Amino acid sequence: MPATKMMAFRSIKAFTLIEALIVVAIMAIVATITFSDSLEAVIRKKINAEDQALALLERDIRVSFENTDLSGTNIASFVNEIGTGDIATAFSTDTNPVYTTTNSNDWFAKIARIRGTAVQLGVAPLPNSQPALAKLLFNHSGNARLLVAAPPEADKQRFMLISLIAQPGELTLPAYQDNTTWFDAIWNTDFTNRNPAASGLWKSILAPDQIAQWEGDSSGTNLYRLRVQRVTLPRFVVTVNNNHATKYAWVYANHDGYSMTFPTPANNPPNPPQSASILAGRQIRVTCGLPADPNAALQTHLFLLREDAVINVDSL
Fold this sequence. Notes:
The protein is α+β, with helices and mostly antiparallel strands. It contains 6 helices and 8 strands; from the N terminus they run H-H-H-E-E-H-H-H-E-E-E-E-E-E. It folds into 2 domains: 190 residues, no CATH class; 80 residues, Immunoglobulin-like. 32% of the residues lie in helices and 19% in strands. Strands 1, 2, 3, 5 and 8 form a 5-stranded mixed sheet that branches. Helix 1 crosses helix 2. The model has no long low-confidence stretch (mean pLDDT 84).
């Protein structure tokens, strides 16, 4: 082969090799983008499904608020706001819980009862032992859903449903703290925004590499993968005006006869009104009778608390 032809052949061959390398590089970039887009699509699909699941849980939680079974069904069951024989709800107090058993007052057991799902007490709520209960408790990423209650407030009671869409170990939630600061750090963050910054509290609790995982890169943070459903239960004020000449009035906030702040004496009028802030949905029972025997008093009112209420005891 002539030298000029040999050189031309080598040039063409070299050019073809360069072209091939460029094509391979472009294909690698396209594959990376395609994979990234596919991964994002999978995450988005999981998030949309989880948002729907949390909305259904919120619905059931709200339904529970007007249930008079404070031990077995009502989520808003707190110490000092339930009857003597009732048991307070067990809320989430660990952001990475390990479940080895199921108790009657676990929040997820209460929701299961509302849904008509069977609950085996003393058995772990896991897929191989209680699959229906596990479906309620765990999301599609295998992470436990959390229901956290805020510390008590004068005018309301707040709750958060929390669900992390990430593989185990991929993102780390800050350890639970039983205080308003920890609660509000999540409550006040807009997790629907792709570019929120981690709160100052999170940065003080988590390690720098853990914060870096949450804050992501130039394409956006990973905070949107924490799904939060906020629930607020108001408190309403029940006010009693007792101007009866001889009788007392008793107001009970629960079906089992647990009294809030009454009876109100009536034998030295005029008596100032007495008020109590009570969780919405509670069954209110009012009786009126002689002070010597409150158990024999006549029931005058029975209603579910859905707004502020004023009860006048005059000539009942």
